[in-house]
Amino acid sequence: MNKNLTPRQIVAELDKYIIGQKEAKRNVAIALRNRWRRMNVKEEIQGEIVPNNILMIGATGVGKTEIARRLAHLAEAPFTKVEASKFTEVGYVGRDVESMIRDLVEQAVDMVKTAKKEEVREKAKDIVEGIILDALIPPLKGSPTPHATGMGKDQPEDERELNEKTRERFREKIRNGEMDERKIEIDVKQNAAPGVGMVGGGMDEASMINLQEMLGNMLPKKTKKRKVTIAEARKILLEEESAKLIDMDEVKEEALKKAENTGIVFIDEVDKIAGNSRGGQGGPDVSREGVQRDMLPIVEGSAVNTKYGIVHTDHILFIAAGAFHFSKPSDLIPELQGRFPIRVELDNLTKEDFLSILKEPKNALTKQYVALVQAEEVELTFQDEALERLAEIAFQINEEVENIGARRLHTVMSKLLNEILFEIPDTIGPNARIVVDNALVEEKLAGLVKDKDLSQYIL
Ligand SMILES: Nc1ncnc2c1ncn2[C@@H]1O[C@H](COP(=O)(O)OP(=O)(O)OP(=O)(O)O)[C@@H](O)[C@H]1O
């Protein structure tokens, strides 16, 4: 994916997955492009440009997380989502808030590792092939000597040649998958440092991590012999060998930079840590305010210790989100408000939006189900009027029972197709064609819509 997309192009990409929410899309697009802009300005002001963190205000299930996640994906940026309210729970200690940065770095490390492994893939494949070959036909030990006693002069040479020839033949067979089912014995690495996680009492997360790593390094790395098919062995060994080929110090360094310069942290439910002016929400205000205070340095820019090294959070993009039904953004402490200068309100989704969400996104639910049953060679189609009715039902249940936004489409769709999915392939065989029409929607869902008590549980 092109990382230098213009704001317009970013919005166009987001449009492929998310219906509506134009303002939110435009703002995240600007924020993303600003990062690229920052990397391309003179170094002396690079450090001065702070990210314009965004506060998304909108009911549940209207696409807040989805926009942030897709944005990160587009930018190939490490992304993490955290629920702010979790920090107000019993047992919470101040430093826990930093765990969101540690998660982000973990993501960055995974991404960089995967990319690096890809670079060494071909080399690792060769090594793996050699290991599998050795397990099948061990190479002859030592070099043949012409003075070997007890054997004809050129017998060892013959033997060696034969061994080489056989190995070459098998190498070919391994390569083209002919021997995939054959079992061989390989050495597999065991997970080190079992049970270290239990040393938790009275320690903060950072010290725990350090201790864990220290113990992990001290314990001998155990290997265990396992009998597996060649296909499996290839997978396991490829993972191990490519891990050996990459330089972990390089990975760490790159990952820290990636997290610092491109990381996106999505903080959900910030409304739940805002003191509320109208009362009526659980949890003491002090602890909510405490969480905001702990969060502040991270959002303002500070150094966080992770097991991969120190991360500076100054240029990480933070996107906070909340419904703000019971509190207002102005109930957040002023310093934190100031750190989220861009406010966007997301629209509530309409019936028409629901219909579009069912049909249009690249990953639309209807497309997902069509693909699922296609795997069984069953053709599934949805009539337009049936989808309209479905959107209407989802909307109605949201209004009458509880508004969970587009998530309702998942439950309604699953109820609608449940039986069909169960019957394939037993009674609905391959090559069958199923048309979802209005009648089916009525049959499966109409009764539930009428019965509010029932729909609370089922839809
Ligand atoms: N505008 C939209 N277009 C397409 N799909 C959407 C839209 N809004 C929500 N969805 C779908 O609904 C589901 C939930 O959306 P999402 O996770 O973005 O909710 P949210 O607004 O972040 O709510 P919460 O704050 O409760 O997490 C996702 O599967 C998403 O694909």
Automatic annotation (TrEMBL):
Presence of keyword Cytoplasm: yes
Domain Clp ATPase C-terminal: 349-447
Binding site for ATP: I19, G61, V62, G63, K64, T65, E66, D268, E335, R407
Principal location: cytoplasm
Cell location: Cytoplasm
Molecular function terms from GO: ATP binding; ATP hydrolysis activity; peptidase activity; proteasome-activating activity
Single GO biological process annotation from the record: protein unfolding
GO cellular component, one term: HslUV protease complex
Disordered: region residues: 142-166
SUPFAM superfamilies: P-loop containing nucleoside triphosphate hydrolases
SMART domains documented for this protein: AAA, ClpB_D2-small
Swiss-Prot/TrEMBL keywords: ATP-binding, Chaperone, Cytoplasm, Hydrolase, Nucleotide-binding, Protease
Superkingdom per UniProt: Bacteria
Annotated AAA+ ATPase domain residues: 50-350
Family: Belongs to the ClpX chaperone family. HslU subfamily.
HAMAP family from the UniProt entry: HslU
Subunit structure: A double ring-shaped homohexamer of HslV is capped on each side by a ring-shaped HslU homohexamer. The assembly of the HslU/HslV complex is dependent on binding of ATP.
Function: ATPase subunit of a proteasome-like degradation complex; this subunit has chaperone activity. The binding of ATP and its subsequent hydrolysis by HslU are essential for unfolding of protein substrates subsequently hydrolyzed by HslV. HslU recognizes the N-terminal part of its protein substrates and unfolds these before they are guided to HslV for hydrolysis.
NCBIfam families: hslU, PRK05201.1
Protein name: ATP-dependent protease ATPase subunit HslU
Annotated source species: Marinoscillum furvescens DSM 4134
Gene: hslU
